[in-house]
Structure formats: C-alpha cells, structure tokens
Amino acid sequence: MAVHTSSAAEAAAPTTRERILTEALDLFAQSGYGGASMRELARRVGIRESSLYNHFSGKAAILEAIVSEHGPASSASRLEEPRYRQLARQPAAFCRQFALDLVEQWSDPREHQFQKVITAERNRVPGIRAKFADHFYAREQSMMTDYFRGFALAGLVSTPDPRETARLFAAGLIYIRLEHYVMGAAPSPRAKVIEAIDRYLAFFLSLIAAGIDDANKKRKPKGETRGKAAPD
C-alpha cells in the first residue's frame, strides 16, 4: 500500500522543467526579465545553474516557454480538449464552459504574474511579441471561429460571419475581466463575476439565436438555410 502511495505522490510531483517555469514566472514578475538572473533562478529551483541549460538554452527560451504555456495559449489548448469537442453541437454549453474556465484562469495568481510579465516584456525581448500575438490573435481566434462556423452550418446559431461572432464573444469576456479583475482595487467576489458572466451569455446567445428549439426546426420551411455561414 505504501508503495502505491509513494508512486502516486511521485507522479503528481512537478518535473524539474515545471519547477523552473514556475519559479521563473515568479522571478520575472518580481524583478523583471532584465533584472532576473539565471543564478538566482537556479537557487530558487534548487539546482545548479549549469543544470538549467539541460532544459532551456537560456533566459529568452524560458520566457518563450512561459508565453507558450500561460494566458491565451492555455485557452487555445483547452479548445482542443475532448470536453470541448463534445460541445461542438451545443453552442450555449460551449460558451458557458469557455467563460467558466476563463474565470478559473483569471483567479489563478500565476495568471496575474503572467500578465504583469508579458505587459512589461513583450516589446523588449525579440520574438516574444510575435509569439504572444500568434497564440492570442491567431491560434485561439482561429479555433473559436471554427466552433462558431460549425454551430452556424448546423443551424444552431444565426450569423453571417462566424469570425466576427467569435470576436464579439471574446470581447465581452475581456470587458468583464477588465471590470472585475483589472480596474478595481481588488478582484470582485466570484459570485459577482459569475453573475456578470451569466448576464452577458444570456444577451450574447440571444443575439445569435442559440436557443432555437426542436419544434421551430421541425416547422422550418423546406429549403430554408437559417444559420448558413458566409465565407470569411
């Protein structure tokens, strides 16, 4: 029994790479990218400085890995998970799941650190701005557009432009984040954030007619193409 417990604990323990990224995010948020040293990072992780280079070629590579695994990148990765694929014909459930996952992300202290780091460093480190833009504006937006295009082609929503519908959905969520997590002196209570999310989702879904019921679809005249998506 003890062996199984030990094995489970070892499996759950973070890898050296994960520990490096965790400590690097904290160090960059505290000292800035320029003020952070590999020696201090190694001390925090509890390994030799030379051992860092077994995992990353240098400090810039560590920052690139942080950008690739946090913030918008993590949202895009979620969209590829089976639990989201299962919602490919459920627009209301899809939108709510995405919004609730964002609330969890916004509440994570690591996300606050990431935003602090990326705001300060994305214009200073070569390649970071482009990498950030690729994850945020390209990959995530493309995947969101694909979901809304699928909803439209299945007749589950009505929109002439899935890309702009995806952008509208994201824009409302960004505003909620600014209002409840960024602009105030302290983050809003979770219940208040969820209330704002629910109010916004009800409005957004009404705009794209996501509540089409089966009876209406059965009464739809033959040849009608409700929800047909226009090409991007």
Strand content: under 5%
The strand count comes to 0
Number of helices: 13
Rounded radius of gyration (Å): 22 Å
Characterize the main sheet: none
Structural class computed from helices and strand pairing:
mainly alpha
Indicate the overall shape: elongated
State the helicity in percent bands. Answer: over 70%
- Poorly predicted sequence stretches spanning 5 or more consecutive residues: 212-219, 222-228
Structure description:
The chain has 232 residues and is an all-alpha fold. It has helices at residues 2-12, 16-35, 38-45, 49-52, 59-69, 72-78, 82-85, 91-106, 109-121, 128-153, 162-182, 190-207, 214-219. The chain is elongated, with a radius of gyration of 22 Å. The chain starts with a helix and ends in a 13-residue tail after the last helix.
Summed up:
The protein is an all-alpha fold and about 230 residues long.
Please supply descriptive tags for the structure shown above.
13 helices; mainly alpha; 232 residues
